[in-house]
Records
---
Amino acid sequence: MKGIKKNLVIASLLVFALAALFLFYKMGSNWEFALRLRGVKVAAILVVSCCVAYSSVAFQTLTNNRILTPSIMGFESVYLLLQTVIVFIYGDQTFKVLNSLDNFLLSVVCMIGFAFLLYILIYKKGKDNLYLLLLVGIILGTLFNSLSSFMQLLIDPNDYFIVQGKMFATFNKINRDLLWPSALLMAALLVFGFRLTKYLDVLALGRDQAINLGVNYNRVVKIFLVIIAVLVSVSTALVGPITFLGLLVTNLTYELFKTHKHKVIIAACCLVTAITLLSGQFVMERVLSLSIPVSAIINLIGGLYFMYLLLRVRKL
Amino acid sequence: MRTLVLTLILIVFSVISLFVGVADITVADILQWDAEKMSLITISRIPRTVALILAGVGMSISGVIMQQMTQNKFVSPTTAGTLEAAKMGLLIFLIFVPTAGSGLRMLSAFLFTFAASLIFLGIVRKIRYRNVVFVPLVGLMFGGIIGSISTFFAVRLNIVQDTNAWMMGDFSGILQGRYELIYLSLPAIAITYLYANKFTVIGMGEDFSRNLGLNYKAIMNVGLFCVSLTVSSVVITAGAIPFLGLIVPNVVSLMFGDNLKKTLPLVALSGAIFLLVCDIVGRIVIYPYEIPIGVTVSIIGAVIFLILILRKR
């Protein structure tokens, strides 16, 4: 336990140091402008980190494995389909017709609506198999993906860049108006969700054990699914899809913090995610000055790490 | 008997497929041997119909083999990363050897699909004792990861929209001289039929098939070879066709059981019919334009698949 506390302290210090480095590195003369611009990025990174960390850890515990992430359930396909439809209809007028706050709210509503429809569809039918829920989500996701790629074929290549900009998460063009609503939503859910972490410790033992220990399994799982849906929607609508970030950071966290107490793991995972995103963004933007969105890199690294996990681990 | 009925249906739809299109061709034109219209038929309509049939047969049979090899009804080229691997093969080759002909590109797609199927089989071995639905979930994650690697390169080269366009299953570009690679799936289909009994046994598990005196590894390799050859030849001529390998085998096995020697022809015929119908629908709905078959198959396929899994369990 002592080692874990030490690691937590080190991780928090690292987050502070990286945030400071990100904010103050080569500031130039117009520091007020630079600080405002960078402050938005750091704040967005922190919000996204907490969303991704909580949703991924909880999701992996619910599904009892370490190789899935909640975004595969179809959230990102819904988001991309919505963005494609908007650009398909309005073309280069998109930004005039729909301001980013409306777009944000619309995306969140669509994703959450999709998740609720999915849950109701499965649970109404009396089928409480979680894997089945995921499979149906993925199948719908594949359907949405083909619809969006069909529309993307018809979109003018110039307008297509608007869609392509939405396909990859970036922290470079975040609207300040969006930060407040998303941060508030995230904070409210985290406060609520953090009090439920004790259930996660029990759920991690498996469905039968949890029921045996007196947990109202279906109810608790539903509550967590709702929290996860809202968190994933907020983070996706704020910056865009980063599919494999959750996979990468949860596994890193379990490697670094050898514990199964969810309170610790979730807190640690928030820190690890923030460190990953801050350092990734810093390296991409300032050191390499590359124009590739940081999420493309993270998906690449996360993907390779996933392959390594699959090939190394003896049993899944 | 069933085979006969399905064959007749297939012939009917093939004939319909020959006569659906922007240029108005009637049976009278063929009887009078109208030179212009006949050349249209031989250059465009016949290749398209043949490609549709071969792709339908190939993709649905690949689905069957993959389901037997993994002993899981939910595995198919869509849910095992096979299609994504073929795409990556095409993309990588295009980046490093931009001038290569389609034969070489297909070879690269073949090698990538083969490697990806090998890795996926390795993964499935590790998760044997899990929930049935878990295997396709992992397969889809696996596909997503291969996809994200290709996307990374595509973003760097600014060809995301183009790669999407190639991968969209679409038969409207099929013309004489540009689709012949799909004939490479014929030997794979023939081998599958010859080995049908052995694939049936393999579906009962490794220990069981060894016990029956089967060379398990060799048969698995034959299966991998057939699947990779078929999938890569279909992807390079027409693009990705999702769901086909998933739905057709499942519907057939629900109705007629799992003896492959008997059901394989049924699977092949129904696959071809399904694809022909989807293509004809896509050609008619917004006539004179077309909806790519990738979209029609996705919509029809997703609905059928959802009905299947929500009803069955």
---
Amino acid sequence: MTFEGVTVNPLIGVLVVPAVAAALSAVLPDYRATARLNVLATTLTLICAVALLFAKPQPRSYLLIDDLNGTFIVLTTFVGFTTSIFSASYIGHELDIGRLTPSSVRFYHAMYQVLMFAMNLALVANNIGLMWVAIELATLTTVLMVGIYRTHEALEAAWKYFILGSVGIALALFGTILVYMAARPVVGEGLDAMVWSVLVTRAGAFDPALLDVAFVFLLLGYGTKVGLAPLHAWLPDAHAEGPTPISAVLSGLLLNVALYALLRFKMLLAANAAALTPGPLMVTLGLLSLVFASFMLYRRRDIKRMFAYSSIEHMGIITFAFGIGGPIANFAGLLHMTVHSLTKSAIFFAVGHVAQVKGTQRIADMGGLTVTHPVLGWGLILGVAAIAGFPPLGIFMSEFLVVSSAFAREPLLAIILVFGILVGVAGLFLQLNSIAFGEPRGPSAKPQASYVPMFIHLALVLVAGVYMPPVLVVWFQNVAGLLG
Amino acid sequence: MSGIDFDIAHLLAGSLVLVSFLELYQDRLYSLLNIYAAHALVLAASVAWQAFIQDAPHLYITAAIALVFKAIVIPVTLHRIIVRLGIHREIENVVGVGITMLAGIGLVALSMVVMLRVTREADPLAREDLAFALAVVLLGLLMMVTRRNAVSQVVGFMSLENGLVLAATGAKGMPLVVEISVAFSILIAFIVIGIFLFRIRERFDTVDVQALDRFRGERR
């Protein structure tokens, strides 16, 4: 991009804008202004991200932009942008009722921007070591944000997330070192042997046995961050106890970023004919997460915890789709990831306001939402209908594609897949019934809410289900082809 | 590579595994922290030796971090914290010492079998180092699952991390090793500050993680 001779590199923009905004949020005297700064910064980052799609800078030894991470970056910055709007009204309410102090609000916004920075860095990193550092940074910031309320539950959730997340990133680092070991004899010592774009072109000559072991470590390590069962234990606690905007960003974005890291290494293994095929491992973990999380949806008492399990379920479906591989399944996986991010964050926007007006997250204490708060209630119903995969919403499309490509390739696995999805749908609707309908329960305070982000997301999900613009289809097909 | 270079590197990496075993059966926090300091000391020596034989001066920084930060600052800070929290009493193991040691031996054997088999083509030094490093990592994990006390879980995590640094320095010419060891030091500093600032003791009246489980949202 060039403005009157001044060249603005959008790649630098997606990194520098959040970093500067984080520093400003930390020192700005007026804490209420930090919320507006937050929105402004995410807007600028989104603009840079969209510009990035057209700029296509050459890969360098630390940063890389291709179609795959371009998709992720636009999705990340978009959801980051809408969440910042939701967050402004949510945090305003938390301040009014005194759950947050001015200093913790400043801290919260600084951390929000650091998180955006870390996720963007992880996505654009061309160096597998740098990517690891960025994902570690993202983990740390979310840990701090989960514990921000300083209650028993929040601290325990943060501690658990911290320890499990640390073990996860430790295993991922061991895997990264093994990848370097595999690359060293071929690429030579030094920086090049950790540059992803170099690695993927030379991967055919790497020692396959070493790559196999490396991938197992990477799968366990980054898989912990994706929330794949049985490594998911941190996820429901972290979602339930942190501020709701963070639950939205965790579910909608951070899980995707970890999955992105896995996909990069999957492409590396695919380039080596003698190495193991990562597909079956990912399919197994994906199905396990799906079925396990679907059953866990029943009898959850905390609304955010329930939707956290729903995120595990959908990450399972996405991992399954990428594990099956091939143009159609990859396409379905990408589409599912995109619509899941949009839908799940819309649901968390609704849930955040519901929890605020009802003053609780217990499902038993909320009821008859469509009577007391029609807009909120129907928004939540629409969101749940979308996440459950009702036609004509976007998730129906993507789940249909996943299921049909699975039937074409692995009919037996497809049966498990459909079973898991159906169990999940039933679980969600049983719970939704008591929340949205029936006798109104709990307080019915007027919400001071911004519904715009929620309905923008839901409208996009609806559009994705009804009519996919050809440009987008071609784009996704292209990326699906890259994934192999 | 001359024989003596290899032998000393081998000796130091092997000692790290042995010190990991020492950590497994310490049943007092005080002595556990002392053993951890020794663990970090052996790591520092091992990294410094690698820096010398690989002729890689930047690794001396990693060795210095291990020596100053991990072997001195962290143990001293944790000593003070546990005294202030009043928990320098015995720590209970979930599993008995005998079973834990047997499991540890099994894990070392496993890492030898896995790493030595897949790294046939790598040079012998890196091979042995990786096998030992994986053993240290797995022993750290074992320690984290067999302990219930938050402080000893952290010690388990820190020795796991020492294993990772050993692996990173053993991989000759690996870039970003210093940066990664700095990143890990920050992570550990966060954990230690977390124990103190979150005042786990004050909030929960204990640092026994099993007691924390009572506060889980599920059981409200």
